[in-house]
Amino acid sequence: MAAALLVLTGCGDGGGPQTASNTFYYNEPEDLNTLDPARISARAPWWVGGQIYIGLVGLDSSLAPVPMLARSWTASEDGRTWTFNLRSDVRFADDACFPDGRGRTVTAEDVRYSFERICDPGTASTGFWVFRGKVRGAEEFFRREPGADGHVAGFRVADDTTFIVELVEPSPIILPLLSMPYCYVVPHEAIEKYGKEFFRNPVGAGAFKLASWDVAQKLVLARNENYFEKDAAGIRLPYLDSVVVSFIKDRKSEFLEFENGRLDMVASVDPAFFEQVFTPDGKGLTGAYAKYRLYRVPSMSVEYYGFMLDSTTRGGRESPFVGNRHLRLAINYAIDRDAIVRYVMRGMAVPAVNGPVPPGIPGFSGVEGYRYDPALAARLLDSAGYPGGRGLPELSLQISESERISAVAQAVQEQLNAIGIRVRINQVSPAQNRSMAAEGRIPFWRANWMADYPDAENFIALFYSRYAAPSGSNTTRFSHPRIDSLYRAALEPGLSAGERAAIYGQAERIILYEAPWVLIYHSTIQRLVQPDVRGYSVDPLDRLMLASVRKQQ
What we know:
By secondary structure, this protein is α+β, with helices and mostly antiparallel strands.
């Protein structure tokens, strides 16, 4: 409570720098609609949830799997059985859900409970695809009679510190998968106490715990005194007393808060400030802004517009894209991605000129994608049955409320209008856009995908038919038997990295031919940080890692 009170005095009336010297402040302009690991599928809850929870496996600075709750692991000779040896010194944060209010030791039973929540249809998790078809018995558990007893056959508890995962087939991505937010570990006591309100009453074993959350104003995290990690000198982490997250929607206001010292980090700079803040190439800082620390790395992400391809959904019934590949291709060839990156994104991205897999991620194939060719786009539009756009109803493109997203959409709108395709832009909240897309309620929408783990499989999985929304991440509900076959083939044991990349390249060529997406760009991650912040870092997964951050006194 003391940490939370210190934070509150630091927020004040906004008239000067923060007074809480050992508190990290950042802003989240996007909606934070859940802190339940079962539904963490966007950056906002991932950043906050990553401070509250931990899983069996983490990722180091090079994005290689490292022990977290697990102390170590071994795999059987056939690669199907993985045994995880858990630490015995990890405790959940103190919370009223426990009988005495004190967080207890995390056990292997907690891991099984947490993983089975993801496989339980009653949880309505968006992450069942993580275990579906991979863990023995996960599918049967998902389809069992409501209220039936029993466990997932492939999740076994040998004792308090030994957890076993049995796979249907060997998988080269099982460890990265287990590092995902869906695999964070939660106590059953919290689910039982808070029920449907657990999403706003999170309890984990991470470096911080929730102190308060005013949905419209701010969220406060306090140091978890039970956290187990120590630094090289034996000092217990985290260094910070607390973290404060504000929810300012306007990017200009957010940047002004950063300039005035009321935020320690800004995740993106409004385009209105680009010229005064950055050098012309976007890679350096100018004048007075040179005092800040600039972190810049390529992102393992893709920005795209999705087409609903399932005619049984509301969005599919209203869509001209279902069954009209030429129309989807016409839109892709009408987009000038280089111009969008140069003039709208100001160099803060890379044009998506290959397939959906971003450059730099393991498994990137380099297959040639769509080029800007308005003449070809016009011919394809003719082949689609809409010569010069005649007879094609005005399209509705739904996007999230954001100046950057809106600016990109307006550029796309102008480029499509040039070949006769009229587009109306509809803006909704990020949470509403995500839910409507997952539910199949819209025919054409803006989306982006940030890698959950560093492997091309994470992107090809977005086109795997068994992962179709709403229970999976294939929101366009694209289905192609050859893609499904290639997806499974790339996960065969014994393949080299080059062999897997070649298989993914074949899949990308089919995806480009069928065009379920309009590929736009791959983001570049840029962060501005106050000069007194130490231990901050960024990586291509865009994680927020605050356990080792400290404020210079």
